[in-house]
Design goal:
This protein is of the alpha/beta class. The protein folds into three domains: 5-58, Nucleic acid-binding proteins (OB fold (Dihydrolipoamide Acetyltransferase, E2P)), CATH 2.40.50.140; 64-222, 3-Layer(aba) Sandwich (Rossmann fold), CATH 3.40.50.300; 236-291, Ribonucleotide Reductase Protein R1, domain 1. The protein contains eight helices and 13 strands. It has helices at 96-108, 123-126, 129-140, 156-163, 178-185, 236-242, 267-273, 279-291, and strands at residues 5-13, 16-21, 24-30, 42-46, 53-58, 64-68, 74-79, 83-89, 112-118, 144-147, 167-172, 210-213, 219-222. The strands form three sheets. Strands 10-9-8-11-13-12 form a six-stranded mixed sheet, with helices on both faces. It has a five-stranded mixed β-barrel with strand order 1-2-3-5-4. Helix 1 packs across helix 6 (236-242) and helix 1 crosses helix 8. The radius of gyration is 21 Å and the shape is globular.
Length: 292
């Protein structure tokens, strides 16, 4: 039996996981009480004379991205993330509220966020004037937006540069082109790419979060597409923290526990009225606040 060595989790399937160590892929079974292991974890492991190798410990995480399972309990998607690449497209049409939820989750990790508008060539055909205003709001408050056409390879060099040596996860609705982007970044890998259904909705092609090593020494995590993304249980204070544009105003409200919804002398409401904060984002904040 070898001394314990460190590796990184590629993916999890059932009770077993795949890890990468010294350019080798190794199938392992975690010890008991390690059921929460996830893609991106750093672990220690040891070989066994018979059967799978054994994962012995999960090393401390910098962060973990979760979403509620069918019982409403947080389910780990991936860990140790530096960059969250949130992919949207003009077909299927963008869900701006879902994008906001992803951005809140990213701010709370915390991690860097990058918005990728894939299928950018479809804007003339599918983007409404209101959609274009919503997209412009994100750039106005400081989020980076990258325009790509995955199937043609447009914007891939810029995306590769944005990832660099980071660990990045690609998230978003089914059908927006996450796996197509991953396939462009990893041409030697066999990544399943789906098509858009006649309804305009996407189809799931990735079933488990999967970590890939990039040539530039970074890592890319391809995550399952979703019809919707919900935040794990967050408090009102955490929701407000997730809206980065609120921060310059957060101590200027009359009340310390201001919800920024109905109170008088609210700095956030005043900034929205003065067009210093984006109105569409604020309306979606109120919707999320009401759903807590």
């Amino acid at each position: 039996m070898n001394d314990l060595v460190t590796a990184r989790v590629i993916t999890r399937f059932g009770a077993d996981v795949l890890i990468t160590h010294a350019n080798q892929t190794i199938r392992c079974t975690p010890k008991r009480k390690l059921e929460h292991i996830a893609c991106g974890d750093y672990v220690t492991w040891e070989e066994n004379a018979q059967g799978n190798a054994t994962i012995t410990t999960i090393l401390p995480r910098t962060n973990v991205l979760t979403r509620p399972d069918f019982r409403g309990k947080p389910k780990n998607i991936a860990t140790n993330i530096d960059l969250v690449i949130i992919v949207v497209s003009w077909r299927p049409s963008p869900s701006w509220e879902m994008l906001d939820r992803y951005l809140v989750a990213t701010e709370l990790l915390p991690a860097q966020a990058l918005i990728v508008m894939n299928k950018a060539d479809l804007a003339d055909e599918y983007a409404s004037a209101d959609d274009l205003k919503c997209l412009a709001e994100y750039e106005h408050i400081g989020y980076s937006i990258l325009y790509t056409q995955a199937k043609e390879g447009s914007g891939i060099a810029a995306l590769r540069a944005a990832i660099g040596a980071k660990t990045a996860i690609v998230v978003g609705q089914s059908g927006v082109g996450k796996s197509s982007l991953a396939a462009q970044l990893l041409p030697e890998q066999e990544i399943r790419v789906g098509e858009i259904a006649d309804t305009g909705e996407g189809r799931h092609t990735t079933t488990n979060a999967m970590l890939y090593a990039l040539p530039e020494h970074g890592f890319l995590i391809d995550s399952p597409g979703v019809r919707d993304f919900s935040l794990s249980a967050v408090t009102r204070e955490q929701l407000q923290q997730g809206y980065s544009e609120f921060r310059p105003y957060q101590f200027q409200c009359r009340f310390n526990n201001c919800t920024h919804a109905h109170e008088p002398h609210c700095a956030i409401k005043q900034a929205v009225a003065a067009q210093q904060l984006p109105p569409h984002r604020y309306e979606r904040y109120l919707n999320l606040l009401a759903s807590l």
